[in-house]
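Predict the assembly for these two chains.
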Amino acid sequence: MTVALDKLILGANPFEGVSYQSRAQAVQYQEHFANEDNIAAVLNAALSAGVGAFTCSNTANVMRALKTFSKIDELRIYPVIPNAYEYAMEASEKGVLGAVLSKAKGFSMYQKVKLGLRALTKIKSVLTKDIMDLLLELLNFEMASFEKLNLGGVILHGQITDMALSSRNPDLIGVFQDVIRDTFDLEPILATHNFGTLLPQLMEWKIRIPIMAPFNSKGFMMKPSKDECEKLVRESGYPILAKKVLAGGRLTPEEAFPYLLDKNVASVVIGIGSAAEAYHTFAVAKNVLKV
Amino acid sequence: MNHPKKVRVALIGLGKLGILHTAVVNMIPDAELCALVDVNKQLSRYAEQAGLKAPFFTQTERMLAEIQPDAAVICTPAFANLSVAQPCLERGLDIFVEKPLAHTFEAAKTMVALAGRGNVVNATGYLMAHMTIYQKAKSLISEGVLGRLERVRASVYTSEVFAKKKGWLYDPDKAGGGAVISIASHLLYLLFWYFGQAREVFAQAKAIYSDVEDAATALLLFDGGLQGTMDVSWSLPNFRLPHTEIHVEGDNGTMEITGDYVKLYLFRGHKSYPKEWTTIYKIDLPSTGRFIIGAEGLYEEDQDFVSRCLDRGRPAVSWSDGLEVQRMIEAIYRSVAQKKVISTGDIV
């Protein structure tokens, strides 16, 4: 199944208090977006600007905003799973395995039965491997947060993609692909910070799956190098979702979007910190990218 | 020792950082991950299923006997570093040890002494040395852009501990301390790298939730008259990741150093840096590592270690550097315990 991806997608980094510019901006984001009404204001502005797609993790303030957002039916959500930040925090105390197992203990019996029935028939071959079983449960557990929402695709967190890449393990990515496509009937997407290493590996594994990766004229977070990433995106024909297009805020929309014109990207993901910024950024994006 | 083309690396300790180093070592062309070691046998199954093909051991000595690696990356809890490093050193392995070098100054000193007996490459995991923005700050300080240095104010805060927590990190006997050794050690490395060893230390610490200190403040005096403060807490809300700040004052202006930028305010222009404001953002600095996972600099750190194993050079952060950080940590803890100024020269 290949589903058409939204051309412009609102990102959630500011809502989660992430800034690449300064601690002061991160604090301003944290305080401002602790109030879910302020997230709703940006979502509203995005919708008014004709952007109805939104990607986020199941962070508490974002989920509160989605729960009460009056135009929720107009939004297509691209969940980023798992919420790696939460696991990493828990891993400091319990270790990585302890954090995962602790999360797994939270699965309800209903979920376990449901997972077994829904997934076992689809991917029997890998269920003998218990790490895959665990991964399957975690994916389903994370997806439960987004159960009642209109979903456009599901993004595997970059840390997980890049771990699978580093251990050269196609099974991990294969399970994600199968579960999202077969169980949820959605488009699986891989987030990565190592686009230039991931794409050749996927081609070797014969896995064709959209990739979300940084693309910007500064080369910010384009690994292994800007040139190698640009060459691959031009030549591979893989569906690419460009993120960090404003280079963490160091580029204006007017400076940033022309760079993407000849890059053959399917979608552009942009984190937005205010309603005014949403109107301006999406207007420039639509004008330059002819969306 | 003569290395083959690839450095065969054994990874010892598969906690959070051990897993990240495993991922990084796997991506370094000059390295081959040849063994995994962890006391938790259950991890063997998960490691194999996650795609890690290297053989798994629960004992370092057995791994050394069967595999004969060229090098070891040790990511065990700090209290185990010495006992794990010792047999590796006896076999002449080059060793990278995650920070801190050990849980006590004595253990760190023993490690440095043992390493000094052989021609082994020894590196330790003070990651910030491999981050471009901190390297930029180092070059600015070294070229004297601020003139004569007068004062430095340094802090690191994170939101990690808001109730009593379990695990070795919060056990004083195993971790050797709390926020200072676990979190501030990175900052203390930066201060040592930028300004040299502190000569005198006076510190206070506070345990709010833990059996170890959750926060601490130190007054530091460096050679040349540079005075400083260092403040750490792992119990402050709204720091989703550790945040480091260093403010340096000199007779030609000020410098603010964070993980995102270096901001200069100069009274007089210096070379290409004009009078008054200059801000250098990390985003604008050229990227270095060819792979990233977990944190910026981790690939560069392991690549540096592997490259030094091959060319027998000195890594960016050696165990001797790690020992100097440990000396500062020990001075802070002694000052807290004795309620007096401690001279680092007395810590031998």
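Confidence is low (pLDDT under 50) at residues 116-129 of chain A. Residues 39 and 258 of chain A are 28 Å apart (CA to CA).
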